[in-house]
Here is the input.
Amino acid sequence: MIKSKFRFLAPAVFAVAMLALAAPSHAVQGDCAVIVTNGDKPLASDCLGILQHAVSQTLCAPLDPCVCDADGSGTILASDALLCLNVAVGNQAFQLNCQCDGTTTTTTSSTTTTTLVTNGVPCTSAEFIALAGSDLDTGWTGIAFDSDVTEGASISFRVLRRCSNDQSVCETDADCTGGTCDATCDCINDKICEVTGPTHQQRCLTSLDPCSTNADCGGIACIYTFGPPLPLSSGNSSVCVVSVFDGELTGTANVETGESVASVGLKSRAFLGVNVDQPCPRCGPPDQNPKIGDTFNCEGGANGGSPCTVEALNPEFGGVSHDCPPDNGANISGQGLTIRFSEVKTGTVRKQATVPCAGPGFTFHPDNGFAFCLDNGSSCSSNSDCLRCDNDLSVCTDNNDCSAGASCLSAPDQPISCGRYCHCGFCDDDATQPCFDDGDCEPGSQCVTGSGTSTDPNAGQLQPNDCAQDFYVCGTGDKKETCENTFKGECNVKTWRACNSDAECQQVDGGDKCVIAFRGCFENRIERTGKPSPLGRYCKNDPNNTTPCSSNADCAGDDVCVDDASRPTSVALFCVPATSSPAVNSAGGTTGPGAISFNSFVKICRCGDGVAGCDEQCDDGNLTNGDGCSDRCVIE
Here is the structure.
């Protein structure tokens, strides 16, 4: 069961996981070594064409370099022409080994080996689909921890293009003076890709109707959302969130290793829930087991009673759709809370608490003249007074005091600091620029404690966590921890309801139990690690199966094995500003930090392969303009 706790930042991280474009293989469309003639095997004229390419007198078709690589070595040489000629004259001792359409090639990254089948057309765009199995934590209270995310929401993005002469960003050759507008990668040979987005259907900010320009919305902004409204609930507070892109998504991906890094900004528009058990207007109640594509009538919200089509699912709260927007009068976030992802990675992200806390009793740090080492209370004036071995965090003065291979370090290289700090501030106290440290701000700006009241978007983070002992220390390792003696209760069936006894749960669901557990918390140094995924064949819908597949038989139930796909885990750390609702802020612990390890399915699309997908409006199987479908797969 997906626990859809109160997470008004959850949709923001969806957008960044999609950047994990991964290691592709060499493969092309066409018959092996047949580049001039037609037929099942090459003729001498085909072999001559390969030889001419090998000595740089001419080139194979731009989309078919592998057809000329007759021995599959990855390089086109005169030996490929000789192999071609032997086959052309019927010498059965020789066989072609082009790795082209319909054949398989093995791609190896630092962690994964997978088999890929591809048609050889360069990649141009991709679609990201959210899956269950993500781990999301937000806020300093620890109430909104350990949540999976609503599944099925999707967005699209494209490979960035640059002018060949000056490397400026472009869309067509007309944008380049004296150069051509070329894609930064083709997912065939290139190792480093630049990506940009989003590129899917835009929506009017308030009505969520489809649009292309602001004029289509009566002057209201026409924007990109991440999927339909997202229902979230925790601590007896519920919100409905519409996530809006605040600028472009940019990043790079290493197509050889599957590693990626990106940055993106979003605005999270939070609305008070319809009720505790129904955060968002619903398109299909959970007891009717809605599926994506099913049709219902909206329950609640601005379009209550109107027809809707399910676009994403939450097993606890049912289906959601752009057709069912929340009531604008319930907005508790103005134009949206600014969410900044300065670094989203398939590797490791790490942040040390460096911002003074705003709550009373949390001013013990060197800036005010009194501080102590966070783990044992010994007085200190800087982090160098709190040296600890990086393996077991025992007290040390130099490396000789640590076991073999361990080092004696100070924060932030180890998580014990001198003084009590919080994670989230704002660049020059600007609510539109949340930050962890000065490095998140423009040069000359500082990351400082927010000075706003508790319901202002620049409200200061009150305390590091809600742990009630040991100097508010939450673990000392590099992973998520829990408080040692601070608890939270939640109903076993309706997990979004807070409780202190079984009776509180049984009043709303007979037989439900109140589960008491240690409260989650953010440690002084937050750290999360993702996992790259080479491009290959993967099961589309199984959130637990990240290994490559070779056929549908490798996938559970009616799931399918999809070619040209990736299954990365991307991680990000971010700060969550406060809303105008005291109840929501109290339950969510905002202003406060957030962390996610995001599970996703990414499908690559290739304009010109004859199959319309991702953000393509059409695909007629060629890259010719003027025939109704452009070379960018846009209807002309």
Summary: The chain has six helices and 35 strands. Residues 1-30, 101-118 have pLDDT under 50 and may be disordered.
